[in-house]
Amino acid sequence: MTTDILPGGVPARTNLHEASSLPPDAVRTVSRRDFGWRVIYHPSAAPPHAESRAAVALCGLERRAPLRIQQQPRLDPTTDPGARIFDIYCA
């Protein structure tokens, strides 16, 4: 176990994949960034409104509300075909 803390006060030992509220077969990567959160997932394996639900769950770890969700272009669409990248900004 670690006592490290991510920006926003989230314990580094938190299972971010589980905390995102996305189904395990949909989520690829969840990471804390300086601006908020970056999520890579497969929309075909996720429920409706998955991005907004993930934003609420991840910003909630910081006791903040989601501010906006921004889609990011895929730099290499041949890697993990069908995956989508989005950034979450918390208020």
Main sheet attributes: strand count, strand direction, barrel closure:
4 strands, antiparallel
Count the beta strands.
6
Mean of the pLDDT scores? 92
User: How would you sum up the global shape?
Assistant: globular
Give the count of helical stretches: 2
Q: Helix/strand/pairing class, anyone?
A: alpha+beta
Rounded to the nearest angstrom, the radius of gyration is: 13 Å
Strand order of the largest sheet: 3-4-6-5
| Helicity, as a percent range | 10-25%
SSE sequence, one letter per element: EEHEEHEE
Low-confidence parts lasting 5 or more residues at pLDDT below 50?
none
The termini sit apart by 29 Å
Provide the β-strand percentage band.
25-35%
What does this protein look like?
- By secondary structure, the protein is of the alpha+beta class.
- The chain has 2 helices and 6 strands; from the N terminus they run E-E-H-E-E-H-E-E.
- The strands form 2 sheets. The protein has a 4-stranded antiparallel beta sheet with strand order 3-4-6-5.
- The termini are far apart.
- The relative contact order is 0.22.
- The mean pLDDT is 92.
Entry summary:
The chain is α+β, with helices and mostly antiparallel strands and 91 residues long. It is built from 2 helices and 6 strands. The chain has helices spanning 16-19, 50-61, and strands at 5-6, 10-11, 27-32, 36-41, 66-72, 84-90.
